[in-house]
Amino acid sequence: MKIATDWKDYQVLETANGEKLERIGGFTFLRPDPQVIWNTNKKLSTKVDACYTRTENKSGEWKFSKNFKKSFEISRKNLKFHIEPMSFKHICLFPEQAVNWDLMTDLIKNSKREIKVLNLFAYTGAASVACAVAGAKVTHVDSAKSMIDIAKINAELNNVNSIRFIQDDCVKFLEREIRRGNLYDAIIMDPPSFGRGPKGETWKIESDIFNFVLLCSKVLTKNPLFVLINSYTTGLQPTVMQNILNSTIKGGKTECYEIGLPTAEEGIVLPCGCTAVKIF
Questions:
Q1: In whole angstroms, what is the distance from residue 6 CA to residue 28 CA?
Q2: Which segments of the chain have a pLDDT < 70?
Q3: Maximum Cα–Cα distance for the chain, whole Å?
Q4: What is the C-alpha separation between 161 and 136, in angstroms, rounded?
Q5: End-to-end alpha-carbon separation of the chain, Å?
Q6: I need a labelling partner for 29 at 20 to 30 A (CA). Which of 45, 91, 102, 218 fits?
Q7: Is 238 helix (H, G, I), strand (E, B) or coil?
Q8: Integer angstrom CA distances of residue 53 from 31, 57, 105, 264
Q9: H or E stretch including 49?
Q10: pLDDT in tens, 169-212
């Protein structure tokens, strides 16, 4: 497992009974987490600045303290990120992904050449910004306009102007890039378990990920740098993604690993999904 460290503005404090208590910036958050299935007798503090609770129809809602700022910034190393509570408990950032930002940044810097990166299911653009700050030219694709709007805020926070933002269904975008003959040196993807495109296209990771990676293989240059798949889908093991990479993209060396966050007051690691990366 690779553990995301070097955070000063973010910390998981405690976990119990399906929830995690976090310090984000100068505020405390209490959110559900599907990985926290250990049902201990410990009760996490409910005196927090932001609390997300599930309702009877399985949706949810945020409740905030009087002093809470609805949006603010946090930083890690030389990067800045926009934080804002959104629907379905998200905060516009997945801090555990810092381990992958570090890996991609090092690969891009050490390549000593111009790198074109394609970021698919790119969410709010933390990986896009990290790659751009490292010197890459990035194409950022997501089907949700709201996510792209926040990704543009993150780019502005980091004085980045080398990201091309595209709102589109990722499969259809890839198919068009194949027809156009556009190629990329590196591909990042963080596909959801289930999703819908802007025109009602459906995505289910278990049935669609193999063919999707196969499409990605057709837009790689002859001298690629890396292909990285990240997944938070419970039950989708790193080795599964490693097998998919090895059977769709030839060459390189594939590594797979879990990623996680340390907890400040428990001394345990909170698992946060897994990653498989092929490095050439």
A1: 19
A2: 56-58, 197-199, 201, 234-235
A3: 58
A4: 11
A5: 22
A6: 102
A7: helix
A8: 7, 12, 36, 23
A9: none
A10: 999 999 999 999 999 999 999 988 777 766 676 778 888 899 99
pTM assigned to the model: 0.94
| Position 190, amino acid | D
Query: Token match 């798949």: residue?
Result: 229
Residue 215 is inside which H or E element, if any?
helix 205-217
Residues facing 75 on adjacent strands? 80
Q: What's the distance, CA 52 to chain centroid? A: 20
Q: What is the pLDDT of residues 200-248, one digit of tens each?
A: 767 788 888 999 999 999 999 999 999 999 988 766 788 899 999 999 9
Domains of the chain: 2-89 (2.60.40.1180), 96-279 (3.40.50.150)
Tokens read off for 194: 């289930």
For β-strands 19-24 and 10-16, DSSP reports them as antiparallel
Residue 4 to residues 7, 11, 259, Cα–Cα distance (Å): 8, 10, 7
